[in-house]
Amino acid sequence: MTADVLQFLCRSDNFGLLLHDGASGATAAIDVPDAAPYLAALKQRGWTLTDILITHRHGDHIDGVPELRAQFPQAKLHIPAAEAERIEAVTGKAHAHLRDGDGVHVGTLMGSVIETPGHTLGHIAYHFAKEHLLFAGDTLFSLGCGRVFEGTMEQMWDSLCKLAALPPETRLWCGHEYTQANGRFALSADPDNADLQARMKDVDALRLQGAFTLPVTLKQELATNPFLRAGNVATFADLRERKNKA
Ligand code: ZN
Ligand code: FE
Fold first, then answer.
1. Which of 21, 122, 127, 165: disulfide with 82, CB 3.0–4.6 Å?
2. Does the active-site annotation cover 97?
3. What confidence score (pLDDT) does residue 74 get?
4. Least distant ligand from the CA of 11
5. pLDDT (average), residues 44-64
């Protein structure tokens, strides 16, 4: 496998993510909360940015794009078609407006776009099937999911079901380090789940060391994430509303 993912913190709890293709040298940023940590990571690795893949229009995912593009003017910007106008107002013109099923090349790596409305109406995820990588933005978090700001509960549930149906060995990368707080709520919702109890022990130990809790396999999320385990939209919506108030 030639794909390499570099994960680092941006702002307070956003993840910065770089996907590097060892075969071609291509490197993609997945969302850009803040340019400085990306520039530092690229410099440290000696990588040249070739692509920027955006999941959704929120400022904590796109605000660093202009500064990053100024440093790497040749990098191609890929954004969700449904949010193109609002994103381009911040980032400038994109190379591609993506819809469900569209392909995205990062060097020799081939990703495909999955529309996941709910958190925002135009939110998309990027799936690299051969490498078993999923970049889920603010749709799916470890032990949790994004808030449903724009879509309906049905839309968000459908979006989560699409991601849950990907191969279980898929490694999930997401937009925020929210796992520990999510896990506390998850334990309150599903207190007898031994897999969840074990995962939370690991999460607490990782956070104590200052380490990240991602990536995680979808297999592990399917065993522990109460939102993926809800089973139907009514149960999902009830959980989501309880989490909003927690
Ligand atoms: Zn967001
Ligand atoms: Fe976010």
1. 122
2. no
3. 97
4. 2
5. 98
- Max distance between CA atoms of the chain, in angstroms, equals 52
Q: Phi and psi for 18 in degrees, rounded to 5?
A: -120, 130
Calpha distance 45→27 (Å, rounded): 11
Q: Hey, where are the domains in the chain?
A: 3-178
pTM of the predicted structure, to 2 decimals: 0.98
Residues 6+ apart with CB under 8 A from 57: 80, 83, 86, 87, 120, 122
Six token digits for residue 5: 């993912």
20 with 108: CB under 8 angstroms?
no
Residues by chain with Cβ below 5 Å of ion ligand 1? 58, 138
Q: What is the pLDDT of residue 246?
A: 84
Contact 53, 30 (CB under 8 A): yes
According to CATH, the superfamily of the domain at 3-178 is Ribonuclease Z/Hydroxyacylglutathione hydrolase-like (3.60.15.10)
